[in-house]
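hiii, so i know i said id send this last week but things got crazy w the move. better late than never?? heres the sequnce for the chain we talked about at the cafe, plus the structure i predicted for it. fair warning i was half asleep when i ran it
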Amino acid sequence: MAGQFFRKWLLKCLHTTDTRKTNAGYETDFETKPVALDYKFSPMTYENPYIYYMQPILKCILKQKQIPYQRLELVVIDADQGRSDDMDDIRIVLEDLAQGLNYLLLITDEPDSYKHFAEEMYQENGLIVQQVPKSAKKESRGNFIIDFERDGKILSECIHAKTTYLPIYKKPWEISENLDIIVPVGYNTLVVSGISLPAESRDSFKYERFMNDKIDRLDREFRKG
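okay and structure toks below
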């Protein structure tokens, strides 16, 4: 109930009409300006709503960067320790992207967590999943990096001229009015458009997360006080 009340209040605040009395005693409608909400992005609490659509997002970015999927050298930086929900996000992305990969490097201090995945990829696809500790981040090779860490700033040492760097939690992924996705790529952003969601997903929780990301984040911050 509190969440529904907050959503209604938020939408009303964004665009509302105020009725006031003038000096002559007549009631007049005044169009108020959108209310500036005091929301501060936090990478420690951010939930990326586009995890389930990473494959079409990645393919769109590869097309813009003119990188064939066969030449994709994917590097995945593991989540911070103790973030079990983030580990679930990583598994979703890996399972979504693994098919057709010729190169995959996991930067992790918990290799045992990916032992079953690595064995499965080798048996089913012949893909050798390489793993290195996080201390070797600077020496890691790859042309597309997906960073699942929350703590710290964007890893500038991983950003090179021929490297595409996607932080999953360190910067917000936005959605524009025409449903284009504004994806952070390094210190800049890139517009991803033309992603069509399956019709059966439009009434699902995933689609609701996709469409209402901004309000959902504000709702969570409001609940935490």
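btw The longest helix spans residues 84-97. thought thatd interest u
miss u guys!!
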